[in-house]
Amino acid sequence: MPSYSIGQAARLLGVSGETVRRWADAGRLVTERDEAGNRVIDGVSLAGFATDRAKDAGFESDDVLTSVRNSFRGIVTAVRVDDVVAQVEIQAGPHRLVSVVTREAVEDLGLAVGVVATARVKSTNVHIDRPL
Protein backbone atom coordinates (compact mmCIF):
# COMPACT_ATOMS: atom_id res chain seq x y z
CA MET A 1 0.00 0.00 0.00
CA PRO A 2 1.52 3.37 -1.01
CA SER A 3 2.12 6.17 1.44
CA TYR A 4 2.85 9.82 0.75
CA SER A 5 4.97 12.47 2.39
CA ILE A 6 3.41 15.76 3.50
CA GLY A 7 4.86 17.45 0.40
CA GLN A 8 3.59 14.79 -1.99
CA ALA A 9 0.12 14.94 -0.42
CA ALA A 10 0.14 18.73 -0.70
CA ARG A 11 0.92 18.57 -4.42
CA LEU A 12 -1.80 15.97 -5.00
CA LEU A 13 -4.36 18.05 -3.09
CA GLY A 14 -3.27 21.36 -4.63
CA VAL A 15 -2.44 23.02 -1.30
CA SER A 16 0.68 23.92 0.66
CA GLY A 17 2.56 21.53 2.90
CA GLU A 18 1.65 23.75 5.84
CA THR A 19 -2.05 23.27 5.10
CA VAL A 20 -1.61 19.48 5.09
CA ARG A 21 0.25 19.72 8.43
CA ARG A 22 -2.59 21.80 9.93
CA TRP A 23 -5.16 19.26 8.71
CA ALA A 24 -3.09 16.45 10.24
CA ASP A 25 -2.63 18.33 13.53
CA ALA A 26 -6.38 18.95 13.67
CA GLY A 27 -7.09 15.24 13.12
CA ARG A 28 -8.71 15.72 9.72
CA LEU A 29 -5.95 13.74 8.00
CA VAL A 30 -4.37 10.69 9.63
CA THR A 31 -0.57 10.48 9.51
CA GLU A 32 1.90 7.85 10.66
CA ARG A 33 5.68 7.89 11.07
CA ASP A 34 7.95 6.10 8.60
CA GLU A 35 11.24 4.38 9.49
CA ALA A 36 13.05 7.74 9.38
CA GLY A 37 10.50 9.39 11.68
CA ASN A 38 8.87 11.48 8.95
CA ARG A 39 5.11 11.90 8.84
CA VAL A 40 3.45 9.98 6.01
CA ILE A 41 -0.13 9.55 4.87
CA ASP A 42 -1.57 6.22 3.81
CA GLY A 43 -2.70 6.26 0.16
CA VAL A 44 -6.18 4.90 0.85
CA SER A 45 -6.71 7.49 3.59
CA LEU A 46 -5.46 10.28 1.32
CA ALA A 47 -7.75 9.19 -1.52
CA GLY A 48 -10.76 9.24 0.80
CA PHE A 49 -9.79 12.64 2.16
CA ALA A 50 -9.38 14.06 -1.37
CA THR A 51 -12.81 12.77 -2.39
CA ASP A 52 -14.50 14.14 0.74
CA ARG A 53 -12.72 17.48 0.32
CA ALA A 54 -13.93 17.81 -3.28
CA LYS A 55 -17.51 17.15 -2.19
CA ASP A 56 -17.26 19.60 0.74
CA ALA A 57 -15.80 22.30 -1.53
CA GLY A 58 -18.77 22.04 -3.87
CA PHE A 59 -16.84 20.49 -6.75
CA GLU A 60 -19.73 18.10 -7.13
CA SER A 61 -22.63 20.47 -7.46
CA ASP A 62 -26.21 19.62 -6.61
CA ASP A 63 -27.29 22.58 -8.78
CA VAL A 64 -26.57 20.67 -12.00
CA LEU A 65 -27.93 17.28 -13.01
CA THR A 66 -25.48 15.51 -15.31
CA SER A 67 -24.25 12.06 -16.22
CA VAL A 68 -20.70 13.38 -16.61
CA ARG A 69 -18.52 12.36 -13.66
CA ASN A 70 -15.20 14.04 -14.46
CA SER A 71 -15.75 17.62 -13.32
CA PHE A 72 -13.12 20.33 -13.00
CA ARG A 73 -14.33 23.52 -11.31
CA GLY A 74 -12.01 26.42 -11.95
CA ILE A 75 -11.60 29.92 -13.26
CA VAL A 76 -11.80 30.97 -16.89
CA THR A 77 -8.36 32.22 -17.94
CA ALA A 78 -8.93 32.90 -21.65
CA VAL A 79 -11.77 33.16 -24.14
CA ARG A 80 -11.08 33.47 -27.87
CA VAL A 81 -14.23 34.10 -29.89
CA ASP A 82 -14.61 33.75 -33.67
CA ASP A 83 -17.68 34.18 -35.87
CA VAL A 84 -19.12 30.76 -34.99
CA VAL A 85 -16.85 29.03 -32.46
CA ALA A 86 -14.96 29.97 -29.33
CA GLN A 87 -12.04 28.50 -27.39
CA VAL A 88 -12.36 28.60 -23.61
CA GLU A 89 -9.51 27.87 -21.20
CA ILE A 90 -10.13 26.97 -17.56
CA GLN A 91 -7.52 26.58 -14.83
CA ALA A 92 -8.81 24.07 -12.27
CA GLY A 93 -6.10 23.61 -9.65
CA PRO A 94 -3.09 22.24 -11.51
CA HIS A 95 -5.23 21.33 -14.53
CA ARG A 96 -5.54 23.52 -17.63
CA LEU A 97 -8.54 22.53 -19.72
CA VAL A 98 -9.34 23.88 -23.17
CA SER A 99 -12.71 23.50 -24.85
CA VAL A 100 -14.01 24.55 -28.24
CA VAL A 101 -17.67 25.54 -28.01
CA THR A 102 -20.03 27.68 -30.02
CA ARG A 103 -19.95 31.46 -29.75
CA GLU A 104 -23.60 31.25 -28.69
CA ALA A 105 -22.69 28.97 -25.77
CA VAL A 106 -20.07 31.46 -24.56
CA GLU A 107 -22.62 34.27 -24.71
CA ASP A 108 -25.43 32.23 -23.09
CA LEU A 109 -23.17 31.09 -20.22
CA GLY A 110 -21.62 34.52 -19.75
CA LEU A 111 -18.14 33.05 -20.03
CA ALA A 112 -15.37 35.61 -19.64
CA VAL A 113 -11.94 35.76 -18.05
CA GLY A 114 -12.30 35.62 -14.27
CA VAL A 115 -15.65 33.79 -14.22
CA VAL A 116 -15.93 30.53 -12.26
CA ALA A 117 -16.99 27.63 -14.47
CA THR A 118 -16.90 23.84 -14.48
CA ALA A 119 -15.39 21.80 -17.28
CA ARG A 120 -16.95 18.37 -17.54
CA VAL A 121 -15.05 15.76 -19.46
CA LYS A 122 -16.77 12.77 -20.99
CA SER A 123 -14.85 10.64 -23.45
CA THR A 124 -13.15 13.07 -25.84
CA ASN A 125 -15.55 15.98 -25.28
CA VAL A 126 -15.24 18.79 -22.75
CA HIS A 127 -18.53 20.34 -21.63
CA ILE A 128 -18.61 23.65 -19.76
CA ASP A 129 -21.29 24.85 -17.38
CA ARG A 130 -21.68 27.43 -14.62
CA PRO A 131 -23.31 27.18 -11.21
CA LEU A 132 -26.86 28.58 -10.97
Automatic annotation (TrEMBL):
Keyword Glycoprotein: no
Superkingdom of source: Bacteria
Keywords of the record: Molybdenum
Every Mop domain range: 65-130
Matching PROSITE patterns: MOP (PS51866)
InterPro entries assigned to the protein according to its UniProt record, in alphabetical order: DNA-bd_dom_put_sf, MerR-type_HTH_dom, Mo/tungstate-bd_C_term_dom, Mop_domain, Transp-assoc_OB_typ1
Pfam families: MerR (PF00376), TOBE (PF03459)
Annotated protein name in UniProt: Helix-turn-helix transcriptional regulator
Annotated source species: Streptomyces humicola
